[in-house]
Automatic annotation (TrEMBL):
<dbReference type="InterPro" id="IPR025857">
    <property type="entry name" value="MacB_PCD"/>
</dbReference>
<feature type="transmembrane region" description="Helical">
    <location>
        <begin position="355"/>
        <end position="382"/>
    </location>
</feature>
<keyword id="KW-0472">Membrane</keyword>
<dbReference type="InterPro" id="IPR003838">
    <property type="entry name" value="ABC3_permease_C"/>
</dbReference>
<dbReference type="InterPro" id="IPR050250">
    <property type="entry name" value="Macrolide_Exporter_MacB"/>
</dbReference>
<feature type="domain" description="MacB-like periplasmic core">
    <location>
        <begin position="20"/>
        <end position="224"/>
    </location>
</feature>
<keyword id="KW-0812">Transmembrane</keyword>
<feature type="transmembrane region" description="Helical">
    <location>
        <begin position="313"/>
        <end position="335"/>
    </location>
</feature>
<dbReference type="Pfam" id="PF12704">
    <property type="entry name" value="MacB_PCD"/>
</dbReference>
<protein>
    <submittedName>
        <fullName>ABC transporter permease</fullName>
    </submittedName>
</protein>
<feature type="domain" description="ABC3 transporter permease C-terminal">
    <location>
        <begin position="315"/>
        <end position="430"/>
    </location>
</feature>
<feature type="transmembrane region" description="Helical">
    <location>
        <begin position="402"/>
        <end position="420"/>
    </location>
</feature>
<keyword id="KW-1133">Transmembrane helix</keyword>
<keyword id="KW-1003">Cell membrane</keyword>
<dbReference type="Pfam" id="PF02687">
    <property type="entry name" value="FtsX"/>
</dbReference>
Amino acid sequence: MFSYYSWLGFRSLRRNLWLTGLMILILSVGVAASVSTLTILHMMSADPIPEKSTKLFIPILDNGPANDFKPGDRYIDEQMSYRDVHALLNSAIGKYRTGLYGISALIEMPRKDLGVIEVEGMAASRDFFPMMQVPMLYGERWSVADEKNGADVVVLSRKTSEKMFGTENPVGRMATMWGRSYLIAGVMDTWRPLPRFYRFNGRGSAFMSEESFIVPFESAIRNQTPHSGGMSCTERSGPGWQALLDSECTWLTFWIEMNSASERGQLASFLDAYVSEQQKMGRFPRHAPNLLFDVHGWLQELKIVGNDEKMSIWLALGFLMLCMVNTIGLLLAKFSGRAAEIGVRRALGASRRQIFFQALVETGVVGMVGAFSAILLSVLFLKLISLQAGYLKAVARMDWEMLLLTVVMSVVAALLAGLLPTWRACQITPAIQLKSQ
């Protein structure tokens, strides 16, 4: 019976093309507006590393001066001083540890006539690769010896490698960066966790930037490679690179991976003990509590999904409700025009339940047809959103979950909008309709 009613529903679409087309259009626009905003929220709030998000931690250690601090103040600075990052890297806590900071570089192209390219990259410890599950296209990360010696080696992104060498394997060749020669140890395959949680420099950077290259952390320190990003200095003493390393300036980021989420308490105790030892040497005068965030907690702290995105969802859902109200009016007009047909069916023995079910299936067919146009409109709306804000281009795309949601939302919206019209249709009295014929 369901298949028969569905066939009748598709046939009914041709009875009044203008009315049917208007219903489908109104419903599709409302669903597409809601789905496009939900898609942005869905992609922005996605887990960038689901296999490890509960085992990766970023510690927050407040090394600021005591003269501008009041007990109870909550100061969040994800960056650390070189002294603290160096000490934590050389500790034995955790499975993997990495210090990192952003850098930019001018890379000379192999062909001199092509000039140079300016790219954004990062200096990081070799543990960064297994910690963040960075896939390799060619080669591998640099060796332990290169890490220890701060050797001039580099891992390129796939995009940067193809700009320089095309599709050939460049491992073992040299790349000239900052006027120095770097041995290419490997090439990363396409890798872009969204949002970029491990190095945050504003919401835009969380969705726009990707690492064009990675050099060893110790190599960047040895070569005095300047950082690209923010720096907080309260008591910097003296000029020069070594003065920066010895200062309390915070400009580096540190991440640590534990074997399991249950070791969080162990890590917290280690950090407390470390800060306590440093306080004996006159550091960390604020005596502020140390904070520890896993990936989920850190993204919430950063407020990746802002109030504007949340408000836009409510507005879109309100617009969908308005579209459903208009659809209800059109469905009422459609079924009232078929009152005579429904009266004849009732006189021939059809029950109200059968009339209600048939009419509801017909509205579901409208929702199914509207789902396809809603998908097309959603893609169009997402394209327009990406043009308005460049950093949203990476998240303004639909995955299979949102495609399925579009179909479900369209059908459910049509069924909800059809409840009142179908109930009114099954209340038609056969005798009155027959007398009027």
